[in-house]
Write a structure and sequence with these properties.
Layout (H helix, E strand, L loop, with lengths): L44 H4 L14 H17 L5 H13 L5
Helix pairs in contact: 2-3
Length: about 100
C-alpha cells in the first residue's frame, strides 16, 4: 500500500473498537442478525420483542402485550434516530397483523 492509497476501515459491530475513543460496549443481544438496526445495547426490535416469548420460559399475556412492546421499542428507536416515522409505522403495522401473543 502506498502513502497515496486510501485507507478503508471496516467496523463490525463490537469488533473494531478502541476503548480510548468508545465507551465499553456490551452487546446484550448477541443473536441479532447482521444488518438489523440495533440500539446502544446491541438489540434489535426483534430482540426486545420476540414473537415467541418476552423472556425465556414465559409467554406474552396476549397479542396486545406484544404489540405494546413493539410500539414502545419503535418509539425509542425513532427518538434515538435509528428509525424514521415511516419505518416505525410499518413495523407497528406488521406487529398488529402478526399472530404473536395469540
Amino acid at each position: 500500500m502506498t502513502e497515496s492509497s486510501p485507507k478503508h476501515w471496516l467496523f463490525l459491530r463490537g469488533l473494531a473498537r478502541e476503548t480510548g475513543h468508545w465507551q465499553p460496549f456490551i452487546d446484550q443481544c448477541q443473536n441479532t442478525l447482521p444488518g438489523e438496526v440495533v440500539n446502544a445495547q446491541g438489540c434489535s426490535i426483534a430482540d426486545l420483542c420476540p414473537c415467541e416469548h418476552p423472556a425465556a420460559g414465559s409467554a406474552w399475556k396476549n397479542h396486545g402485550a406484544y404489540v405494546s412492546c413493539v410500539a414502545h421499542a419503535t418509539n425509542d428507536f425513532v427518538e434515538a434516530g435509528l428509525l424514521s416515522e415511516t419505518e416505525k409505522g410499518e413495523i407497528q403495522s406488521d406487529a398488529g397483523a402478526s399472530s404473536c401473543g395469540h
